[in-house]
Amino acid sequence: MTRDDWGIALEAYLDEELTTKEAEAFADAVAADPAKGAELQARLAQRARWRRALGAPGDRDNPEVPRLSGRISGRTSGRFPDRISGRMPNARNLHQLWMPVALAACLALAFGVPRLLRNDDGAVGPRSTITRDGQVAAVRYGESPGRTVRLESGSIELPAGLSR
Amino acid sequence: MQTVDPRSQDDSWTRLVDRHGAGVLRYLRSVVGDEDAARDLVQETFLKLRGRADEPGPGLVYTAARSCAIDHLRRQGARRRHEVACEPAVAASRPARQSDRPDTALEEKMLRGALLEALAALTEDQRTVFHLSEIEGLPYARIAEVLGVPTGTIASRKHHAVLKLRDHLRRLGHDA
């Protein structure tokens, strides 16, 4: 038996993949050779260490199990729409959530406020009138109501700041 | 025509996740070498399996997991192998399981990091055979089903994977 054959048989024996006859033959070979016996024990101990290090079935202390299955189940039921990886939104990348909201708010202000201030005739700004004998004569944009001035040309009352 | 009760299908799928979720996570962690990627791939794996009329066995579950892992590794490209080899510091920083003696916990943590680095040096097939056999305890026939190879090749692949891991750990100064 080559070294490789022995190693392959050792793995199959530990994994319980040998037939009954093959397993008995292997056990006999181990019993007859102390070096083989030591190698078998060393491999068993190594397997136990590796299983502890990488996690193994039946580890009841493993907190991953209930948390993981709960998250995956929640993911498909819509309770947890986010991914279960560590790449979840946190304080450092929260701007990725709020940026679209802030942008939408700015756009709403930029386009919405002028619409609210627009008058019936399409002009934007506070309505201002020039009255003649109490009648609405004209509407001017940008005028601010102020004190009345009397012009030389007539008795038209104009808001302050208007020049002709 | 046979109808499937959606509620019983959900129950069956939840049982599948409960039964194989942790094992699939461990497997994917070994194969892709990245904790966060492994968790995402676990989701992908079980979402792939959702909706089946029959509950899949472990062979099919790990076949789906392997498929997701291979797709991930392809997306990452060959560069990923080198990145994975540099991740033992991250892997080693994962919290150690509880242990009565702090030095034992530290040793386990260091061994875990070294093992993950050593696993990165194996081929994907070797990693799959090693992990499914050594850690998850799957029979060779199931593993052969996952890889699509004859059962007789599994023991040989495992033996060579163990030798490579042992050599790599010794080079890292671990008593393998």
Topology:
The complex is a heterodimer of chains A (164) and B (176).
Chain A (H helix, E strand, L loop, with lengths): L2 H12 L5 H13 L1 H21 L9 H14 L17 H23 L11 E4 L2 E5 L9 E2 L6 E2 L6
Antiparallel strand pairs in A: 1-2, 3-4
Helix pairs in contact in A: 2-3
Chain B lengths: L5 H27 L2 H15 L8 H19 L2 H7 L2 H5 L9 H19 L3 H12 L4 H8 L4 H20 L5
What do you see in this structure?
The complex is a heterodimer of chains A (164) and B (176). With 164 residues, chain A is mainly alpha-helical. Chain A is built from five helices and four strands; from the N terminus they run αααααββββ. In chain A, the strands form two sheets. In chain A, strands 1-2 form a two-stranded antiparallel sheet. A two-stranded antiparallel sheet of chain A has the order 3-4. In chain A, β3 (149-150) and β4 (157-158) form a beta hairpin. The longest helix of chain A has 23 residues, at 95-117. The relative contact order of chain A is 0.05. Chain B is mostly helical and 176 residues long. Chain B is 75% helix and 0% strand. Chain B has nine helices and no strands. The model of chain B is unreliable at 88-100 (pLDDT under 50). Chains A and B meet through α1, α3 and α4 of A and α1, α2, α6, α7 and α9 of B.
